[in-house]
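Issue: copy button drops trailing tokens. Both records pasted manually instead:
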Amino acid sequence: MTEKNDQETRNDNEPDYHGRDQELDSTLGYYDLINDMLMESPRELCPDSDQEDDEPTAQEDEETKAAFVEMKKKTKKALMEFRCRVEDAIMGNYLFGKPSRKLCRDESLRQKEQLKEITLWGVPLLPSKGHKGTDVVLLKFLRARDFKTPDAFEMLRTILKWRKEYRADEILEEELGGPDLDNVVCINSRDKEGHPLCYTVYGPFKDKELYKKTFGSEAKRQQFLRWRIQFIEKGIKKLNFKRGVDSMVQITDLKNSPGPDFKELRSLSSKTLLLLQDNYPELIKKNIVINAPLWYYVLHVLRSRFLSHRTKKKFVFARPQKVTKTLLKFIEPEELPVQYGGLKREQDEDFTPEDKVSQIIVKGNAANYVKIPVAEGGLTMVWDLTVVGWDVLYKEEFVPDDEGSYKILLQDKKRLQGEGVRNSFYLSEPGKIIIAFENWNFKNRRVLYRYKAKPTIPIYLTNR
């Protein structure tokens, strides 16, 4: 069949991901040109998240308030129009297009009754059902289409048709991915606002055997793409469209990931991003990319031509030295995994997320310390700490209250770089643990720490 016939037989409502991806691949010939641009002005093309905005003036505050009131009116009006249109389409049985005239009356009534029960992401779409999540879902389509009701309605119809053809509602029941990909994605805790954190780590694909096993044929590539969509659907199951948390945060870790020459992974990453934009509107709160190499910034510049303005605004980039600082803007330290500079450890028997974290600042070219009080003997003290920015010296020692007792050196002076510290020590008398920090850098360092006491019976007593 010719290329022309292929285009004619393609579903008119199906987004042309293949064509857009081919165009993206062809534009990579401009790699050197974009690379020069990036070297000249990297912040303009892909700014880091730590850039500070100027403080708004009083006049700008008033203008912002006025714009907010106007937007609220516009939103309410658009939502009412959208609700009416969706209600009419469902009750009139034309949500998926005009029904066939050949249908008998009984079949037409049956279809209408089925359509009344239609849901999207587990939320009923018929406004008159009164489900609290219906307006939340409809607003996502309006925001994605700048509150243009006809465009939002067309997007809704297109997505419903895509989900039907792609069998998206059945995807969670399928066995996809397998154990080889278990360490590539995970949903781990939530951000400060309660959004689920969905991590994707591309480092394992550096293994050539795994790469070939995953992307070695067209069928395997399509299965991988379906597996990625399945992961998104799993994330949606963590949302609550009734009470506020109706979007998730994606974190993509590119440390040790395959380079731009691995076109299969690059192509599928682009397709996944386009599928997200076109079929999951406003379900991604932030798209945080960490440990991004230079080639990824170049790729993102090229790929941005295919992304909407709203999608582009959701991206946050963090270079390796800014990963912890960037992630802590969105995630509490007790919810951030240790490999990213947080204090969260899997299957932690010592601390829970309810054990809140304290902090101190160690100024540049200065020292500071953390004091952990030990109220009585017979306790095992456990402490956890990490330093934002790393690269400091630290030392741990126990100082007893009794002046006749000896100090105990728990940790000699050591350079802290790239990993947090978890330590514990049994103490038979009251006193304090002093953790001293020396910062020889020009910039300040932030120390995050927590501790707790555990009553302990010494082993020599239990053996009696």
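Record 2 (pasted manually too):
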Amino acid sequence: MSHSGSIVSLTADKDELYEAHVDTSQVDERRLLRKIDIRVVPWLALLYFLNFLDRGSIGNAKLYDMATDLGITDKQYLIALTVFFFPYALLEPASNVVLRRIRPSVWLSSMMFVWGIVMMCHGFLHNYGGLVTLRVLLGVAEAGLYPGIVFYISCWYKRSELGTRVAAFFTSATIAGAFSGLLAAAISNMNGVAGKPGWSWIFILEGLFTILCAVASYRIISNFPETAGFLTKEERVFVIRRLRDDMQFSAGGEEFKVRYIWQSLRDWKTYLAMGIYMGFDGPLFAFSLFTPTIIDEVRYKATTANLLSVPVYVWSCIVTVIVGLVGDRLGKRGYINLFLFGTGLVGYIILITSRTPALSYFACFLAASAIYPTVPNSVAWVASNVEGSYKRGITLAMAIGWGNLNGAVSSNVYRAVDAPWYRLGHGIILAYIAIGWLCSAAFMFLLRRENERRDRGERDEVIDSDSSREGMDQLALKNGRFETVNDARREKGDEWSQFRYTL
């Protein structure tokens, strides 16, 4: 910090107390956190479970002669997978802006209701054109759910609490991966019921359940902390105060301004975050869509392949929870990312070189234990280093959207002509993971360097309305001039000189 009295000091101007007239002394923080956990996380986990289950059902349906019944080639099947990702990725940033401006209970539930209908329609397909159309509509309907949930959770918890909650919610994806194989194997026994093949019933029943849950969501999903109906007035105020103490200065509401979008677009963190998300989202989609096929092709068939995918997902669920707990406890999410991506590199090198089904199956465990835990760990890491609710929402949506867009690539890498070992596909996924490792290393290095610059006072702002005073530090003038510390906090967000990034 500079020694000039006109330069911002952490103690020079305390942030005004949110709703200062409200007494929160009787609020039990631990009990309140449990109350929020029970109300917020489980239902969101169910939503994402259904999202992941519905999106990946086509991979299971393919094993039960869907492609043959529709008369589509392998290339056409890959195109149908690909077209899903374009609307899914491109609509995500706009979705998060809408989510912050209206109630989450309305936006997330409506999204879910529409995609449930689209899923049911998959069960009545007759040709390739219908399949492509429905995959595009599914991408439109599901766009924004994942970044919306991540952003929504980040508005409830401190940075040191976020990893565990995101991991708990994201484990539903691994459970969906395990459950989808069991469910598909069970539903396939309905083959011939009402004159429909077993793969049709997979889509119809899963879509119907999604619609029912969407209707319930309108009442179950809570809004943002400042208006949450399940909390008392004192509890709502307490939540906002503890978030502001954790440098989430936008907690309690923030008026939308176009400059928040530009702050995100100009921030180098946004683009490195996109590289990190690219590093795990490309592999994630490929893994979830093709794990049954990969196992199937190395001498395990149809139902056996679906059932053998279950232990892989159970293992990744366990690792995801452990990583979430360790990340919150140690706070070293960058180092965790490097370790996880490194494990993925080993897994895919084995898949590329393996000629043994058992060894390839073991490598699937390594790949899963790298891909799935990296997602919530990276989400918590990026979210905790971006302040300003709109800026954070846009940054997360851009990173997640770019990562998801790479699903359009990774959904095409496992070609039938490369069976049974799929070396080309594994090699491309290996390159994705390497990109994730490099971007994580760069992200951590640059965050540390920025913290050091702030420790040296190189980012200090001038807190003084009198522009005529002499002797002002020129570097501080370049960093901005504000009436109060609170103005600097609100205006600059994570660029404020006293904000410290987590490594």
